Amino acid sequence: xxxxxxxxxxxxxxxxxxxxxxxxxxxxxxxxxxxxxxxxxxxxxxxxxxxxxxxxxxxxxxxxxxxxxxxxxxxxxxxxxxxxxxxxxxxxxxxxxxxxxxxxxxxxxxxxxxxxxxxxxxxxxxxxxxxxxxxxxxxxxxxxxxxxxxxxxxxxxxxxxxxxxxxxxxxxxxxxxxxxxxxxxxxxxxxxxxxxxxxxxxxxxxxxxxxxxxxxxxxxxxxxxxxxxxxxxxxxxxxxxxxxxxxxxxxxxxxxxxxxxxxxxxxxxxxxxxxxxxxxxxxxxxxxxxxxxxxxxxxxxxxxxxxxxxxxxxxxxxxxxxxxxxxxxxxxxxxxx
Length: 337
Fold this sequence. Notes:
The mean pLDDT is 80. This protein has 13 helices and 4 strands. Helix 1 runs antiparallel to helix 13 and helix 5 (109-144) packs across helix 8. By secondary structure, it is mostly helical. The protein folds into 2 domains: 2-108, no CATH class; 110-329, MetI-like (MetI-like fold, Orthogonal Bundle).
């Protein structure tokens, strides 16, 4: 028992160390790329007329008068303990975790991300649940009814979902359920705390749009994995032991078929939490995707760099959770450092 706990602790520590190294590499690459861009955030904030003296003062205040590696170190240190821009009465304090400060919006990047995150999280988590349930269920049914009309129907819908552009599906959903039938709101976001029912109805179309596209991929993947799993020797052994067919399918077949599904689900969810750009644009929701588009169009580099780091963290963390789930789904996966 103690050895198992020790191996688990070692496994988690090893994965956390790997996460930290990956995030540092991503941070360095991201920061260097945006540092080399032919833009000058200090000049954008300098105003008019921007004399060389004013530009120098702005660069010192924003922290752009140092070499890139010093700026990068200040950025990393700010994520852990926070940082201060300028000095004296005009100093701006950015408490940790500080992903930067947007002088254009006069707010910390952390606050900007956290203020938009509930919108994106509502879209991403709800859509992920819908596409996982319907995608996996459709794939299992198609696999068990292989070669029948049901199988061809499910795969036909899946092919349509994979082929259709997300913006087209969203616009058709708005046209049909919003304008033609008038069943659902066509856009906007209502916080859950303000009105749970309105929150739910405003998210149905984004959920279904994303689920139709992503669920199709999961249906095809689950079908292929289920067909392969159900032909394995351990399935024949389970049936020979007299186990119920439902137990054979779900406990033995589906459990092993879900391993690759969990892999892409964790990565897809992490990426979607980082910004459902197209869905937010189509349905007029001000989430992380809208924040990113606005920052890119206005060359707000602190927001772009901070957003990139936040998204990278979500994806890397999702991958870490997937690694832990492997041991639950497949006992053959040994925890090792």
